[in-house]
Each structure stands twice: as C-alpha cells, then as structure tokens.
Amino acid sequence: MRLDTPGSRRGDFLRIMKEVRWELDIRGYQHVKLFISGDLDEEKILQYNEVADAYGVGTHISNSPVVNFAMDIVEIDGELLAKRGKESGLKQVWKCTADGSRVRTLASRDSEHCPQCGGPMTPLLKKRYIEGHALLPTPTPRELRARVLANLAGAEL
Fold this sequence. Notes:
The chain is of the alpha/beta class.
C-alpha cells in the first residue's frame, strides 16, 4: 500500500502510518507492506523506519535545484473523481490578454472575463492527445526552453 505525504494533508504522518498499519493488521492484512513517498529526506526516513517497509525517494537525491510538483487524476471519461484534499474535474487556466491576470476554472467553461479589468481571457491549456494520437506537434526541447525563458522573463519572482 502506498502512502503519500502531500503538503495539503497536514498532520502527523507517522501517526497516520501507524493507524493504517493497525487497521490492516486487525483485518488480517499483516502481509501488506507500507510504501511511503512524498518529499522524503534522510531525517524523515529515519523517523518513519518504525512503520514503513519501503520508500519512494526522488526530490532529495539530487544536488540540483528542484521544482516539487505532483499530478493527480481528477476525472476519467467525464466521471469526476479526486483523492481527499484535491478538487475533482478537468481544469482550464485562463490568462487576461490585457493585464496578464490568471484564473483557474473547470474546463467546461467556454469563456472567461478578467476579474481585474473585465477584459477577455484566453485559455492556456490545450488538448494534446486523444486516444493516444497527437493533436498538436510536439515542441522540441529548444522550443520548450525558449518558451519557459520567455514566461520567466514576464514573471514576478
């Protein structure tokens, strides 16, 4: 069984792990192993060794700076679903053409007006694949880098 430690869960993760282990054990599932992941470092692993059987470590094994993010399934074939602490439904991000403001809505919205200036907004997320077939050409790494640098140039950091 995989347990994750996303920031949105808040709380004592070791206590949560012990509770899950207890519930599995009293129901006859002592053979089920607990696989722990989510922003783990050597200090947290030492703390969790009491209960965890295995770990998924990614962020903290590199010397380079990282951007920590996660992707979650929020909809399948139109059926809304999400794990606890997440919002269900396919999303769209809109950007104001006048002032650059951004708004997140459900993807089913056809248009959006800027909450700051009332102007039109353009959708930023585009469907790239349907049933495994590409709808748009895949940008090269060089094109992606140029796009990221252009976006960072206009960002407030």
